[in-house]
Design a protein that fits this description.
Layout: H1 8-22, H2 29-36, H3 40-43, H4 50-73, H5 78-95, H6 97-102, H7 109-113, H8 116-130, H9 138-158, H10 168-184
Length: 196
């Protein structure tokens, strides 16, 4: 029988908080059970496995992240939208390191298809990029460029990897400027087909 007061949502929220406090990899069913003062078995009525728990944290965090990005980009287009998107992404990654790490795990595509938050992520990201006149397959290439740039920068910043005296925010702003130039001047094949 489930312990009174424990729900799946409460368990997942506590796991997300634990991830921020101690790192996503430290999130285990045992650690959560200790947090709630219950036996491990009590939590298995709410999540079937550690993998399910981690996926639920990833989906929760993904929803939070896209909500912040959506609020930031609302009413903006082009470079302004890109800067707002990038700023919200970075702020979330730095404020919620464990939750952010969860968003980087590979999630089964059937779960992604059923996740309104992840569908919304695609809609907002692709919508912003369409303002640059991009269509497939360039949209997918551009999404990969943005994701790898934002993630790489945030990961290095969080790890203290920028040792030069140059202000980290100034470098971030230049990176966003450079991405805007790249997107506005995206290399397209003259006949619309992909090069080899």
């Amino acid at each position: 029988m489930p312990r009174a007061g424990l729900t799946t949502d409460r368990v997942v929220a506590a796991a997300a908080d634990l991830a921020d406090a101690t790192g996503f990899e430290s999130v285990t069913v045992s650690a959560l059970a200790r947090h709630f003062g219950v036996k491990d078995a009590s939590l298995y009525t709410h999540v079937r496995s550690l993998q399910e728990l981690r996926v639920r944290v990833a989906l929760l965090a993904g929803g939070e992240l896209i909500d912040e990005i959506a609020a930031a980009v609302a009413g903006r287009a082009g470079k302004e939208a890109l800067a707002a998107f990038a700023g919200a992404y970075r702020a979330y990654a730095l404020r919620h390191p464990g939750r952010y790490a969860a968003t980087q795990i590979r999630v089964d595509q059937s779960l992604v298809a059923d996740s309104p938050a992840l569908r919304r992520t695609a809609e907002i990201t692709y919508g912003m990029l369409r303002a640059y006149g991009l269509a497939e397959p360039d949209l997918t290439d551009a999404v990969r460029l943005l994701r790898s740039t934002f993630h790489g920068y945030c990961a290095l910043e969080a790890a203290g990897g920028f040792g030069a005296p140059r202000d980290v925010q100034a470098s971030w702003d230049k990176a966003v400027d450079a991405l805007h130039v790249a997107l506005a001047n995206w290399p397209r094949e003259p006949d619309g087909s992909r090069g080899h």
